[in-house]
Amino acid sequence: MISRSNKNTIIGLALVSFIFGAGGGLVGSQLNKASTDRQQLVEYISSESDLISDIAERVAPSVVSIEVISEQTGFFRSFGSSGFGTGIILSSDGYVVTNRHVVPEGSGEVSIVLNDGTRYDDVEVVGRDPRSGFDIAFLKINGARDLQPAEVGDSTNVQIGDRVIAIGNALGQYQNTVTTGIVSGISRPIVASDSGGSEGLSNLIQTDAAINPGNSGGPLFDVNGQVIGINTAVANGEGIGFAIPVSDISSSIQGVLTNGKLEVPYVGVRYSMIDNVIADRFELDADNGAYIYAGSLESAIVADSPAEKAGIFDGDIITEIDGVVLDEDNSLASVINRKKVGDQIELKVIRGDEKLTISLALEAAPESL
User: Fold this and answer.
1) Which of 145, 136, 148, 143 is nearest to 192 (CA)?
2) CB 195: neighbour CB atoms within 10 A?
3) Which of the chain's termini has less CB crowding within 10 Å, N or C?
């Protein structure tokens, strides 16, 4: 017979064995889980790296380096007589989109170098967008054949946190440099400057992918290898880059590819997008929209413009275009640039106490505005 003291000893030993056994199993389980988590992390990083490498290799032939001989120099250009930038091939026969500041008025010889080193010196400037806020120009490589065009995506679906890839001629020295990051913000306004002055740009995609002088005019790709933006500016020393949403220039791209010339639709008004500051300053009874405002000029309406013909007046507030509400995500300029020259659009307008619906036919913007 087991004595009470021995029985207690046996029970105690059993409990100790159980605790150590369970604890050991728990520790082992946690170690196995940590090992699995590390393995999954390694596999994820490896998979993402493979994806980026695959995209970079696939799209690189659609990205070109641009060299411009010009008397002008500035913030976006290299010192001396040569300026550098990046461009995106849009067609197999050599149409290319880039930034307007890469090939400004006064540019002389323009050369384009492909990813494989092929150089073209017979390059024509098809057109520069004349509107303030659209830093876009189109080029044509004369005599080019069988080039690989980039696949143009839809930037209206871009969301904060999306992974993006930038490719460009960094600093005018490092052709087809690849950087990655995420979309840090959308609908950003900035003021970009160079020696020619400053220009307000709006509705931009903000990214932390490294963008340097020389990357201007290059593509911002999504993880499907589609172009969602045209890189245009960088906040120096801040690690912040900005790109023009490709959907904001879709009509211009289609026009160039179809007609071989740049025609951009315009309304012919000067305006400020309404926010709390604008609403308070001008005592406006509206939370959003485009306030038609002349500033220091005599009139906000361009003479003989579609706006004048349609009966838009100084002080009007345009709240909608074809059902799209004008707000911080949809400026008047960005909505109009998704249209085509000749389109008939419908505007919702507040004029004093009246709410009006006005039809307007879009025309091609003159070469200077």
Assistant:
1) 136
2) 11
3) N
SS3 state of residue 75: coil
SS (H, E, C) 151-192: EECCHHHCCCCCEEEEEEEECCCEEEEEEEEEEEEEEEEEEE
Give CA–CA dist 353/112, Å, rounded. Answer: 55
Structure tokens at 77: 């250009």
**292 close to 318: Cβ distance less than 8 angstroms:** yes
- Whole-angstrom Cα distance, residue 235 to residue 212? 9
At residue 34, the pLDDT reads 56
Contact assessment for residue 326 and residue 288, using Cβ atoms and an 8 Å cutoff: yes
CB atoms within 10 A of CB 262: 21
The amino acid that residue 256 corresponds to is V
Cβ-based neighbours of 27, under 8 Å, separated by 6 or more? none
Contacts for 217 with CB less than 8 Å, ≥ 6 apart: 66, 85, 86, 87, 88, 97, 98, 99, 102, 137, 168, 230, 231, 232
Mean pLDDT, the chain, as a whole number? 83
User: To 10 degrees, the CA torsion angle through 169, 172, 173, 176?
Assistant: 0
Least confident of 22-26, 185-189, 243-247, 346-350: 22-26
Cβ neighbours around 45 below 10 Å, total: 10
| Structure-token pair, residue 130 | 């004349």
Q: What average pLDDT does the segment 240-246 reach?
A: 92
Structure tokens belonging to residue 237: 């020393």
Find, among 271, 286, 266, the residue nearest to 339 by Cα: 266
> What's the N-to-C CA distance of the chain in angstroms?
109
pLDDT tens digits along 47-105: 667 888 888 899 999 999 999 986 544 544 444 446 889 999 999 999 999 999 999 88
Q: Which of the 8 DSSP states describes residue 330?
A: B
C-alpha 333/C-alpha 267 separation (Å) is 9
Residue 236 has pLDDT above 80, yes or no: no
